[in-house]
Design a protein that fits this description.
The chain is an alpha/beta fold and 162 residues long. It has helices spanning 10-16, 31-40, 56-66, 77-86, 104-109, 111-127, 156-159, and strands spanning 8-9, 21-24, 44-49, 95-101, 134-139, 152-153.
Length: 162
């Protein structure tokens, strides 16, 4: 996915977009604030914290927990790709916001793992081709691995009181 010149506001991206997309989240907005924006738009918030993830196996385990993968789900890249494309086991929602954060450690220690994960997520979201429900994934802390992604921020008015 190539980067876009302008940064857009998350609330507007949720309200006006047609396609699922992977974005870079450059700011320090809290997960609670992002959850508030998502839920305010009728979307379900999913949180993948990579702060203690150091390997592919740990990433797949953390992703399975964050996305509430079914117990029968495999723990390999093929299963991860199929599950990210599907999401049919999740409760119905207008859409899903997936926050992937604290990715810098994994980006430094296992860049191939994080790169593969972001490629799979990006490909899976593009494959949805406007099919509902939409999925917006936000990645923070991935450094150069996410540098070319379009950026999204939280409008300052939305973060007051958070």
């Amino acid at each position: 996915m190539t980067g876009k010149a302008m940064t857009q506001d998350l609330a507007r991206a949720l309200a006006k977009g047609k396609d699922s997309e992977l974005y870079r989240l450059p700011g320090r907005t809290s997960a609670a604030t992002i959850e508030q924006v998502a839920e305010g738009a009728g979307w379900r918030f999913l949180h993948l914290d990579l702060g203690k993830v150091d390997s592919k196996a740990e990433f797949l385990r953390a992703a399975g927990k964050a996305l509430d993968f079914p117990e029968w789900a495999g723990r390999n890249w093929d299963a991860f790709e199929e599950l990210v494309r599907d999401l049919s086991w999740l409760p119905p929602a207008e859409g899903y916001v997936l926050l992937i954060e604290r990715a810098s450690g994994l980006a430094e220690r296992q860049p191939d793992t994080l790169s593969m994960a972001l490629d799979i997520i990006g490909d899976a979201l593009r494959a949805r081709k406007g099919d509902p429900p939409r999925v917006v994934a936000l990645v923070r802390g991935a450094g150069e691995l996410a540098a070319k992604l379009p950026a999204v921020e939280i409008e300052k008015a939305a973060t007051k009181g958070s």
